[in-house]
Structure formats: C-alpha cells, structure tokens
Amino acid sequence: MSDLKFAQPARRNLLAPVLLAFLILGIVLALFIRFTPHRTADLTIVHTAVVPTHTIFKSDSIVVTNQHTEDQLYVLTTLRIDDRLRLPLFLKDFTATLTTADGEEVTTSAVEKQDLENVYTSFPALRPLATEPLLRETMISPGQSAEGMILLHFPVTQDVWDRRRSAILNVDLYHQGEQQILIGRASETIHTSSSDTTKPSSSPTN
Fold it and tell me: Which of 71, 69, 89 is nearest to 80 (CA)?
C-alpha cells in the first residue's frame, strides 16, 4: 500500500510585497519632497516712506533763460528678513519692479551704501527719514533675522506711483535664489515737504 501524500500549498513569498511597499513609499516621499515648497525666509515690509522730488535746472547763462524740471521718486522701505532654514542666508542684491497703471515695468536697483551720502546731500528731505541700511553681503544665521532700510529710486512722479498696479521688492540670495515681497500701500507714508531742489543746468541729474 503506497504512502498517502497530501498536497502542500505553496509558501507565499513575502519578500516581494515588502520590497514593493518600500519602493512605493520611497516614490511618494520623493515626490512630496520635490513638489512641497520650502520656506527659505520670511520677508516683512515694516514701513515705507515715499518722497517725491522736484528738481529745477536753471541756466547760468544771462542769455539763455530757459529752465527745465525733473520729477523723481525715492522710496525708503524697511525690510525684515527671518531665516527659516538650517543654513545661513547671504544677501546678494536688492532690486524693485514698479508696474504702472499702463502696464509699463520700471526696474531699479537699490542705492549702494557708498552712494547714500551723496543722495542725502542732494535731497536733504531724505536724511531724517533714513534709518540703518540693510546691506548687500549681509549674513543671517539660521533662526535669526536682519532688518534695515533699502533706498529705491524711480524716475517717475508721485502720481504714477500712486496709480501703480504693483511695486515688488526683489531680494536676491546667494544659493537660494530670489525672494519677492509686495510693497503694499498700507505700509507707506508720503512726505512732500522740502523736496524741491534747484540746480545749475550743468549739474548731472541724480
């Protein structure tokens, strides 16, 4: 009499499902990291002072009596930057883009540190409004913040500024790229007193 043999069910290979589960989990995590935005820094506009200037260029000649005028705008905006990374931030450059009511874009670079005194001398109304500047090449340690004034110059009138579509401050960081913040109307005050300046026509425009 032959021995009875019972069919044994094949043992399931659990290794393949486990590896597949880990593979799917890895893909999901990679996609999450890839497409989830990381906060590099928090930018806050603390205060903005707007100073329209009116310059009259007079001729020194007794023969030529014509004169011409020039209207420009200075924006002193105080910016606070909070480092949200575990790495230090290095400030590379500050620029701003003004979009007028007609859709024209006017881009300007912040006044350099070495040029500030010349601007204050040419337009004394700016000096009492100026605070400690936020400088290029500043390093912000992880978890720390930096705050200071950024002086912007736009070759436009106050009316163009008031009717603007937007004014965007661009903060260029080494290694982390560009961060942007809107210079909102709620943060600004307009200063119009003592902003007129008279210069000889031979003087360069500011």
Answer: 89
- Is 0.85 topped by the overall pTM? no
If we measure between CA atoms, which residue out of 187, 48, 46, 44 comes closest to residue 129? 48
Distances (CA, A) of 34 to 27, 37, 84: 10, 8, 18
> What does the pLDDT look like over 140-188, one tens digit per residue?
999 999 999 999 999 999 999 999 999 999 999 999 899 999 999 988 8
How far is it, in rounded angstroms, from Cα 96 to Cα 105? 10
Alpha helices in 152-203 (DSSP H): 158-162
Helix (H, G, I), strand (E, B) or coil at 153: strand
Which residue type does 173 have?
L
Q: Name which of 129, 132, 133 is nearest 195 in CA terms.
A: 129
Could you tell me the sign of the dihedral formed by the alpha carbons of 43, 188, 159, 67, in that order?
Answer: negative
**Of 150, 178, 133, whose CA–CA distance to 41 is shortest?**
178
Dig out the tokens for 127 from the structure.
Answer: 């000096």
What pLDDT was estimated at residue 56?
76
Give 202's DSSP letter.
T
CA distances from 78 to 17, 58, 64, 140 (A): 57, 35, 44, 16
* pLDDT for res 196: 56
Which residue type is seen at 30?
Answer: A
How far apart are alpha carbons 120 and 178 in whole angstroms?
A: 29
Side-chain half-sphere exposure of 120, counting CA atoms within 13 A: 13
